Fold this protein.
Amino acid sequence: MGFATLNVWIHDRTDPCRMSMETWSVTVYYCDGTTPVQFCPNLGGPPPFPVSAPCGHVEFLLPPGCYVVQGALESSGTALPPSVMSDHGIVVVGCDEKACVHLFTPPSVHLSGPI
């Protein structure tokens, strides 16, 4: 009752017209962009962040509010920090609303001459 449903979709790193087939970790932050959302999972809130997003997708419930969303490519069993991060997405959701956030990875910068 009153929760918002948030779907996060992460696009392919080389073909942004497709969804990623990789496993990502998604973190939803409060509007300050630095504090991960924490809300009582017993009441239907999300599990502790980051949340695994196989094939670039995850869905969960959040209290109404304004949030910043970001993905990190999961390292395959290593303790290394992620080297690929998505752009940030911003979403505002109200009670009983549904929202989608699409995350893209920043393109490589290729310079061929003076700017």
